[in-house]
Predict the structure.
Amino acid sequence: MRQTKQRTEIERIFQDFNRPLGPQEIHEIARKSLTSINLATIYRTLNRMLDEEVIVAVGVPGEPDRYELKKAAATHHHHFRCEKCQTVYDLQGCVENLKAMLPNNFSMTSHDIWLYGICKDCN
Ligand SMILES: [Zn+2]
Ligand SMILES: [Zn+2]
């Protein structure tokens, strides 16, 4: 019963924040409504949600993974990471004509773009 409540709360947080979140971040947010929730429970719940493919990992270069809802990940998008608060935000759209960068006889199967800077909360 407790487990269900915590799972529901974590899913609500993903919906509300609508951006990639890390376990620590989720813990800090969840603690406001479920004061007794601990980090181990967050990790366990995230692992279960990963197994069920409700969420996917967002690999942040050189940092622990963040996670986002699989349905958000289904739309092609990229991410911005704030250098001050380490928050990761979703970006809309993509870069045009990436293939123009390719040398002759190279073909591209995928791409990965990260933008870094300072977010509006830190600016
Ligand atoms: Zn920031
Ligand atoms: Zn793209």
Observations:
- The chain has one domain: 2-117.
- The mean pLDDT is 93.
